[in-house]
Design brief:
108 residues, 3-stranded antiparallel beta sheet, elongated, alpha+beta
């Protein structure tokens, strides 16, 4: 673990796209500001651990996949027998192509 000391309004950078700034220190609390790309998930540790535990509990329960499918409105998944999975439904034929109108010569 890397340990750093920072004062209020000082920052650390992680890679080139994540900046963590100490906004305020008040008693035993530190307020942090985090700038990161939208695809980077940021969670408080206790929330992350609670969600992970709930997910592990849900998937460990017998019938959890069927419960999820019903909750999502899809019904229970088809049972698999010795013959393997159920056959796939026939593929839909593609929609006919719509012709494009001719290009406007006034636009460049």
């Amino acid at each position: 673990m890397l340990v750093l000391s920072r004062r209020p309004h000082e920052a650390i950078r992680i890679r080139h796209d994540i900046v963590v700034t100490v906004l305020e220190i008040s008693g035993d609390k530190v307020r942090l500001g985090i700038e990161a790309p939208g695809d980077v998930q940021i969670h408080r540790e206790e929330i992350y651990l609670a969600v992970r535990a709930a997910n592990e509990e849900a998937t460990a329960r017998p019938g959890a996949a069927g419960d999820l499918a019903r909750a999502l409105g899809g019904g229970a998944p088809a049972p698999r027998g010795p013959a393997g999975p159920a056959p796939s439904p026939p593929a839909a034929s593609p929609a006919p192509a719509t012709p494009r109108p001719p290009a406007d010569p006034r636009r460049g």
